[in-house]
Design goal:
With about 130 residues, the protein is mainly beta. The protein contains one helix and ten strands, in the order αββββββββββ. Strand 5 and strand 6 form a beta hairpin.
Length: about 130
Amino acid sequence: MRKRQLLFLLLTLLGSTGVHAYDIDVNGVYYNITGTNTVAVTYVENGSGNADFYTGSIVIPKRISTGGTTYTVTSIGSNSFYSCSGLTSVTIPESVTEIGEQAFYGCSGLTSVTIPESVTEIGNLAFCDCI
């Protein structure tokens, strides 16, 4: 009986954990903590399987602050802006070194991306189906 209760508890906890959870929301952009005072922009879906709520121009800040802690933005995570067809431009700060797989996949309205020299890694299909 005890094993069943533990198994049920474990399955309940696993089932309630969001696949695309995030740690921090600052000005409508979502971040996961990746290390001591570092964060990555992350993917949060709109309920229909993509993150298409980002529109217009986005300037990703070099640093964000929340709860008395300042974090440096060091990467754009996989799928962060997946299928955001209304996204028109993105400015990435010098603190970012990596753009993840499919980060901007399907951003068909994207006409301008500022990628700093600090970016040394761009994942597969990061800008696929962008015009």
